[in-house]
Amino acid sequence: MSDANEVKLCLKVMLNKQKNKVLFAEIDSNFADVLLSFLTLPLGKIVGILKKHYGEEARMEFGSLTALYNGLANLESNHFWTEGCKDMLLNPRSSFEAECLKLKLDIGDTQPTRFFRCADTDCKKKRSNVTMYYGNIECDCGKLLSKPMGITTHEDEDEDEDDYGKDDDVDVDDGGVFTGKKISFLLTDDLKMAPSIQGSVIQTLISLGVEVPQGAEFMTVTLGFNEIIELLRASIFSETPLTDVVLRQTNTIGRSTVDLLHHKKLGSPSISKKTMTVKAVVQKSTNKLLFFQAEEDFVDFLFSLLTIPLGGVEYLLDSNTSLTNIDNLYTSITELINDKYMSSPCTRTRLIKPELPPKYLSKNQIFPLTEQTTPTIYYFESGTVAEKCYRMCFKDPKGEESYIKGPGKYIVTRDLYVIPFCKNIGRSIMKYIKIPKSDVKAVKLQIGFEEALSILKASLLSNHCLRLALVNLILKEHPLPK
Q: Is residue 150 within 8 Å of residue 159, measured between CB atoms?
């Protein structure tokens, strides 16, 4: 694949007569694949992409997720079970890495999957332990699993690591990664997408809610790496993402906070009955949430939100995230694009309910998510008499099936910034917000599945996530004085 900064994607857009709004676009399967790849990006990856591209000074805050990510970055490594845990959360991987490597333009900078064994050639466990997470995972002997392994042949176990995971036969000009090869689609300004079927274009536009006024005209545009990242940003923050990118405009979304408090309930028998206990420190006179006191299980749950792909969020919230453009893109897959327009029925199913990569699922995850099966890796050893084969053990980069080491106590601010607990921190916060101690009360709350969904939804939209998500629960446990 070419350098992402050099790749250009072409599309035909229809503009209104005033040339200040995109009515719809005709896109090929390459562009459709790049657009659908947004759904494969973990939330933490999106935060990282925006921070890297726009810089810290731009204050490109993705709800409360940016503060959550920053708190994670600033947390000392001794709060995690292993060095690898923090890196897994800061740089979450996708279960669609093989597909994203084939995209004509990949804004996620996906790297080929590689496998690593013990770097110590004298290690007795060198045939046993393996990982796909480089750099911070220890072998049973205490050394790092950092020696790359070839995975296509056992004739040369020291195969150059630059050759791993490459697919020289992929033709990115044909599309066919998520959508079928050489299929065209119609795309609205708010990212509804449907197949462009010859003889039915007008009917498709009507079904998408597009009206074509007199005087509208087509224009061919090319978008590169920077424009696609801008499209990702606009799909989250703007009412008209396609218009913003094509015509370089900005139309920020205004959201109703009432709508944010509601989400559809998942009717699944696999819903967890697990609950987490937290203390909400509130102002007595107003019931205003000041901060949370929480233990490691709740903090582990919060950080694990960063590993959930955007499509997984859509699945959990039943296409009702209040990120309207992303909701539209997801429902295009569930309702408008059937299997025959996808590269395979399996691909469509995986986009609708994406899995986490192997070993990413924490025991503190309250949502009904699944992870990919751990790959089975064999170590082949050539001998003078016969070859020997050893089944290797895939090392979990987490410890105790979670990311955060326990026991531990933390303060979580309203925007999900996590700080290790100490009495001085609590006093400093109270002094800063200038609320007398007599007007403060700790309210014990139980966070279950429904409350976790509210936190997930509010984290996408508001920088006062906890206050918005749990206001009703706080009022229930601590009614306002009459």
A: yes
pTM (two decimals): 0.90
Let me know if 61 is exposed, middle or buried by CB neighbors in 10 A (0-12, 13-18, 19+): middle
User: Is the pLDDT score of 78 beyond 50?
Assistant: yes
How many C-beta atoms surround the C-beta of residue 426 within 10 A?
17
Q: 381 forms bridges with which residues in the sheet?
A: 388
Residue 79 exposure: Cα atoms within 13 Å on the Cβ side: 22
pLDDT digits over 440-460, tens only?
899 999 999 999 999 999 999
For tokens 């490594």, the residue is 77
Q: What percent of the chain has pLDDT over 90?
A: 54
Token pair for 480: 């306002």
Q: How far apart are CA 194 and CA 22, in angstroms?
A: 16
Query: Could you tell me where the DSSP H helices lie in 393-441?
Result: 423-433
Q: 198 Cβ partners below 8 Å, 6+ apart?
A: none
Residue 394 near residue 358 (C-beta atoms within 8 A): yes
Size of the chain, expressed as the number of residues it contains: 482
CA atoms within 13 A on the CB side of 23: 19
Model confidence band, residue 51 (pLDDT cutoffs 50, 70, 90): very high
User: What is the layout of strands, in order, in the sheet containing 409-413?
Assistant: 418-420, 409-413, 289-295, 276-283, 440-447
In this structure, the number of other CB atoms found within 10 A of the CB of residue 133 comes to 25
Alpha carbon of residue 370 to chain centroid: 14
Q: What is the dihedral of CA 75, 78, 81, 82, to 10 degrees?
A: 90
8 Å CB contact between 323 and 236: yes
Residue ranges of E strands in 81-216: 115-118, 129-130, 145-149, 185-188, 193-195
Q: Which residue has the higher pLDDT, 326 or 118?
A: 326
Which residues are 409's β-sheet partners? 295
Is 411 a residue whose pLDDT tops 90? yes
How far apart CA 18 and CA 70 sit, in angstroms, is 43
Contact 100, 39 (CB under 8 A): no
| Pick from 266, 194, 190: nearest CA to 22 | 190
Highest mean pLDDT, choosing among 77-91, 226-240, 368-382, 418-432:
226-240
Reply yes or no: is the peptide bond before residue 407 cis, omega within 30 of 0.
yes
What distance lies between CA 170 and its chain's CA centroid?
26
pLDDT (average), residues 292-302: 96
Look at the block and give the residue holding tokens 């996590």: 418
Which band of pLDDT confidence, cut at 50, 70 and 90, is reported for residue 169?
very low
